[in-house]
Amino acid sequence: MRTVIPFNDHWLYAPAQLDDQQPDSAFEPITLPHTNILLPHHNFDNAEYQFISTYRKRFTLPEPRRGRRVFLDFDAAMIATTVFVNGQLAGTHGGGYTPFSFDITDLLTDGENLITVRLDSTERPDIPPYGYVVDYLTFGGIYRDVWLRLVEPVYIRHVFARPQNVLEPVQGLEVDVTLANASEQAQQARVQVELEQNAGLQTETVSVPAGGEAKVTLRFPELPRMALWTLEEPALHTLSVRIVSDGSDAPVDEVSVRYGFREARFDKDGNFYLNGKPLKLFGLNRHQTYPYIGAAAPARLQRRDADILKWELGCNIVRTSHYPQSPYFLDRCDEIGLLVFEEIPGWQHIGDEDWKALSLRDVEAMILRDRNHPSIILWGVRINESGDDTAFYTATNRLARELDPTRQTGGVRYFRGSEWLEDVYTYNDFSNTIIEPDQTPHLVTEFSGHMYPTKTWDQEERAFEHALRHARIQNAAQGNPRVSGAIGWCAFDYNTHREFGSGDRICYHGVMDIFRLPKFAAYFYESQLSPDIRPVLRAATYWTMGDRSGGGNDPLWVFGNCDEIEVYIGSQLHGRFQPDRETFPHLPHPPFQVTGLQMHMTWGKEFSDLRIVGYRNGQAVSEVLHDSSGLPSALVLTPADTELRADGADMTWLWFKIVDRYGNRLPYATQVVSFELEGPGELIGENPFALVGGQAGLLVKAGREPGTITIRARTQRLEPASATIEVR
Predict the structure, then answer these.
(1) For residue 100, what is the DSSP state?
(2) Which pairs with CB-CB distance under 8 Å and at least 24 residues apart come from 710-713?
(3) Best label site of 24, 151, 355, 518, fewest CB within 10 Å?
């Protein structure tokens, strides 16, 4: 039988190119995923991660081989990998975003074995996305999981579940199974597919050539009614694929695949349809990188990003700019009902023929890995914002359609008139509006972002204008029947090269900061959540007298999903306000524009607290308060999770803020915060932290022992704060 063993533990690491003669003492013990260097959250040079490092692992096979083949599977490593087993070359791989495997069977011994990984993390021009400038960082390290896999010589290589007649009274399913044969003789294999809850069982026999592959399709033409995968109820189904022995039906190999029944298509009428119903796409782009650890984020952080996009930002789609992202992130999108537009690695530059061959390999690897995810609705098969290349993009589209005839293709461009070879015209629209499409289907895949970078400590009028730009463009997209939707640039601030971003080499393009904490623009996205999920009420103000040009707070923008709001200055009712449907007629929940505030903010008059009450169906459902003093009241420490796993790799956010007496962050609280940790874990990030913008975050990493982590934070003139996390 197949055995798949997590292989993240007990690695050794050296930030240098070392040979097998070097003692283990020249290395440090680490657990995967791993970044090749910890960095500050900003003000560092990308050259700092560009070096060759060495990873080492000693191991004995945990169980007898019994004639099975042994594979070493990497989910990803950045960016060029060379693997040796017991001093012999196992293989090489160029590229940092897709999985790769090496058959190490013939290199193993019966006792202790030594794996050596030489990892070149330089920005090599021969490997996508490099070759010219790139507006993001790739970082370095074995930053995703590694697995040890033992399989019989004839084994299951790929499975693709393809629902049929999803919306018809009688549904069906076709399951493509690709078998591999590592032996020197052709083999007959009996393939069995079993659906969950006795929904069906099919068996086929296939001949697999020596050293080759064979594909067979097992069909279930009539199924009991399968629940559909929707955004509100993302039903997931599981099937098992087995190779069974003659006579006994005992499994020789077995894999389980999770999939969903749903129909997703972009139509020539301009609409996107999910399960036959039109759906306006409303989303944001996501980079996979984090402060301090680069891209080496464990499952918990990956899954949380999906939760933030869906439940905190109200998105129904995310674009994986500009590369395939973590399987854990995509799994979570499946589970919560968040649509995905996934694309191949690259940024504007197209390289030579060898470079293009790697890009085609990335198309194949991406689709083979991810085509069972019901959340994915579109394959991006063009290098982001690149020029036209007819032969290259004809090949990428053809390959995508061969590997997955169930999904459409897109190719992100940023200039009009680009050759359109894909199924969906995916366009980065930086017009500060929505251009009228020349053709449909037309999906806006970026807007705003670099055109209006905004920091958490920016002046109030810039901060709320950032939010309004997103509101205006999403409103225009929602109101244009020939536009399928809009995906804003972008969800989170991110580190970048010196050619881009601000002076500290951060692109402040996010509606949230690099720590996944909100700016005012995040309030707009959150406000589009259905009030049935939760009431939302956010005032886009610091509530100060002199932060805007000319002073005052008029007009005041309030984002929420209420029917109406009451605004109080101190105890005095200023007025009742309705959503601004005249300016934003197409949004489900337009922002509120509160005017006439200057009468309350005059020199010599008392400046009072702001109170806003949100109403739905005539009932008060939410309230916000802002302190007129603007003085720091408390240091607040909030872990994103209260439990971690004792695996040496699990992490969570530790957010900290300086707030007024109502809990609002104070963007000009530029104090130094210091931290102490006790217990089985460590803090990742700057300590002490020079806080700017009133909010920031560190990461807490679990150790290998259970217990309680206690973190204490201190800053001048405020009471210390503390938080605890259980490690189990």
Answers:
(1) E
(2) 710/677, 710/678, 710/679, 711/637, 711/639, 711/654, 711/675, 711/676, 711/677, 711/683, 712/675, 712/676, 713/635, 713/637, 713/656, 713/673, 713/674, 713/675
(3) 24
Query: pLDDT of 489-545, one tens digit each?
Result: 999 999 999 999 889 999 999 999 999 999 999 999 999 999 999 999 999 999 998
Main-chain phi, psi angles of 489, to 5 degrees: -100, 115
Spatial distance between the Cα atoms of 693 and 657, rounded to a whole number of angstroms: 9
- For the chain, helix (H) and strand (E) counts, in that order, are 6, 46
487: nearest Cα among 386, 590, 384, 397: 384
Give the C-alpha separation, 454 to 470, whole Å.
Answer: 12
Neighbours of 662 (CB within 10 A): 15
| Alpha-carbon radius of gyration of the chain | 27
Q: Are 697 and 657 in contact (CB under 8 A)?
A: no
Q: Which two three-digit tokens encode residue 497?
A: 């090269």
Q: Locate 595 and state its tokens.
A: 């005017």
E strand or H helix that includes residue 470: helix 460-479
- Among residues 691, 220, 297, 307, which one has the least CA distance to residue 494? 297
Q: Where do the domains of the chain lie, and which CATH numbers do they carry? A: 3-149 (2.60.120.260), 154-259 (2.60.40.10), 280-339+353-371+402-527 (3.20.20.80), 537-619 (2.60.40.10), 634-727 (2.60.40.10)
According to DSSP, the residues that pair with 538 across neighbouring strands are 559
CA–CA distance from 57 to each of 85, 113, 357 (Å)? Answer: 10, 8, 31
Q: What is the pTM of this model?
A: 0.95
- At 521, give phi and psi (nearest 5°): -65, -30
Report, as residue numbers or ranges, the catalytic residues. Answer: 385, 446
